[in-house]
Amino acid sequence: MYQYDAIDQQLVDERVAQFRDQTRRYLNKELSEQEFLPLRLQNGLYVQRYAPMLRIAIPYGMLSSTQLRKLADISCRYDRSYGHFSTRQNLQLNWPKLEDVPDILAELAQVEMHAVQTSGNCIRNTTTDQYAGVIADEIVDPRPYCELIRQWSTFHPEFAFLPRKFKIAVNATESADRAATQVHDIGLHIKKNDAGEIGFKIIVGGGLGRTPMVGVTICEFMPRKDLLTYLDAIIRVYNQQGRRDNKYKARIKILVKALGIEEFRNRVDAEWAHLKGKESTVPMSEFDRLTSFFSEPAYAALENKPEILSSKLADSAGFARWYERNTFEHKKPGYRIVTLTLKKAGQAPGDATSDQMQKAADLSDKFSFGELRVSHEQNLVLADVRQEQLVELWEAAKEAGFATPTLGLLTDMICCPGGDFCSLANAKSIPIAEQIQETFNDLDYLFDLGNIDLNISGCMNACGHHHVGNIGILGVDKKGEEFYQISIGGASGHDASIGKILGPSFAQEEISTVIQKLMNVYVENRSEDERFIDTYRRVGITPFKEAAYAKAN
Amino acid sequence: MPKLIKNGGIIDNAFIWQQDPEQKVTPNSIIAAQKWLSEKDTIGCVAGIWLDAGDGIEFLQDVDLTQFDVIGVNFPAFTDGRGFSYARLLRERLNYQGEIRALGHFIPDQLGYLLRVGFNSFQFNEEVDLEKALALHKPFSIAYQGDVSDPRPIFLRR
Ligand code: HEM
Ligand code: SF4
């Protein structure tokens, strides 16, 4: 894991001091509301429905057990003993007091954490695959590159006041894109060319929100040394030419769409011509330095499928189910990647109590070299678990409420905080998640349905990524009443697509019935082993639409 | 005489930022760059020109910038970050060595960033306490990226 040196630590400490002073001046009325707004936003502080919301950065989702314990402790002492892990691999606290935020930041700084640029119109926390570094088919570990981007984007003097927020995600596997790179402002796919050199395919202009778009390729292969100069060029063009007259049209996707990718690329290249080869060209020594932080932990030489695992798989259907769903193949024999799900019925997706955070930290110490990751699907991951310890881990995970064996299934939902917390919401989203979890509680049935992404957002800002859910649920407001629009056919992986709206919206109590009907259409139409999304792509929207709106007879 | 912050100190402002195109141009005027460009043959000597957000710097490419004591950059709103690039491009691309002055709506908390992209003078709104602003001059003692005073990113300096 990356470890701060004196420079990193100094910057974070100085940021704490700066924000402490800004908060003091705001409370003293030396800074106006309007002036304080972007300053606090660049430090992750929203003013929300009930209290400020503080978004703490978890760069590319990596956490040490020490850091997670600190988060547990902070959420316990300064908040209501829980936190919300978000799709952008961050942690949100919903109830901190503004006056306390400088102290919270100071405590975070003690464990090499911060809330820098977690919101506001600047370059946000870079995200990546939660399985980075431990999957077999990865081209290289993307985390050193994420760290390079983190440093380049932190307090970038030219790009702190962009037209709109800016999000970058990195992927390094051909077989899956777990970071939804194609719906980011910039998506980076790490590649190796025929000469064995590492570089990036660069995708630009994806994004969700009001005008959802899948990004387009601006560059097929950018050598890694040129990454930062090229990113500077892209963002400089965007900063200059992106729309500032209308915040709904201010994202880079709108600019790319308006110019067309050819013209946008020409402008970026013209800018890049001045930057290419200059000081920001990254030397090999820096890649080596960054890579050294992500070297392999002390793996033992182990065999796959030890006896204790095989016999438990044979004996316990519950364990077998958990193993099948919540664990993933590791690049090293004898190890397994384990997801601790935060999707227990009755708990908002992504929420974890302080106690759970504490327990997850303990589990990571005991089973996974003291490290964890946060996933885009709002779960926690232990990346390096010995297969011989899986049974023990399973028992412990069950106790802590982490073992809901539904990873990737219909009830492993992404869900934004919605109307319960968010002042922008048109409708609640957590009760919808609950309703679906209650309705679809038969594990055999869920298993039979297989992989389905169901994403819920409380308004069209799309924090819950509803557009790219195989099933998307969007809260809408109809004359002051809460309704829900359903879309199907979205996807966020390498086959990214934006879902199509089924038709008129539904009342809250109808949602799980409608989902049930959609599932029936799928089950009737699927060919063997076909995923929901593939059946949809084959048969089209019509049968789903007909079933959803059919009058009961 | 109104004061401003320049090169880390508080000094008297010798120039007049002329926003009204009808106002009479004097040798102390900082006038709109576009106006200067179209009327430069008749307008006479000025202290400098100012850029508006959206102007870019390309149109100054073939202009001899050494004739100006100052180039101003207007921030229509402090959240409009276009001017940050202008200063940087004036320094790095057009090699302008003179004074670059921030004008309009920017706030003391932005001084750290403004300095790093090449601004060296700051004409704040009247209500800003310059002594207090000066204290916010340098929020960070170190930076990851290169900037106009040292173009080397951290990886060349660690
Ligand atoms: C609770 C307070 C929150 C507020 C006020 C808020 C606000 C917003 C707004 C205004 C947008 C639209 C931006 C645009 O279209 O340009 C947005 C998008 C987004 N937010 Fe949030 N959000 C909140 C919570 C969350 C949470 C909990 C998550 C993660 C679970 C999240 C992740 C995202 C993502 C991924 C997007 C879509 C990005 C895109 O357009 O590509 N936000 N949010
Ligand atoms: S999608 Fe809307 S309701 Fe949900 S968190 Fe985002 S802004 Fe709030």
Automatic annotation (TrEMBL), chain A:
Keywords: 4Fe-4S, Heme, Iron, Iron-sulfur, Metal-binding, Oxidoreductase. Residues 53-110, 350-400 form the Nitrite/Sulfite reductase ferredoxin-like domain. It comes from the Bacteria. InterPro entries: NIR_SIR_4Fe-4S (IPR051329), NiRdtase/SiRdtase_haem-b_fer (IPR005117), Nit/Sulf_reduc_fer-like_dom_sf (IPR036136), NO2/SO3_Rdtase_4Fe4S_dom (IPR006067), NO2/SO3_Rdtase_4Fe4S_sf (IPR045854). Residues 119-274, 413-548 form the Nitrite/sulphite reductase 4Fe-4S domain. This is Nitrite/sulfite reductase. It comes from Marinomonas maritima. The lineage of its organism: Bacteria, Pseudomonadati, Pseudomonadota, Gammaproteobacteria, Oceanospirillales.
Automatic annotation (TrEMBL), chain B:
It comes from the Bacteria. InterPro entries: UCP030820 (IPR008318). This is DUF934 domain-containing protein. Pfam families: DUF934. The lineage of its organism: Bacteria, Pseudomonadati, Pseudomonadota, Gammaproteobacteria, Oceanospirillales.
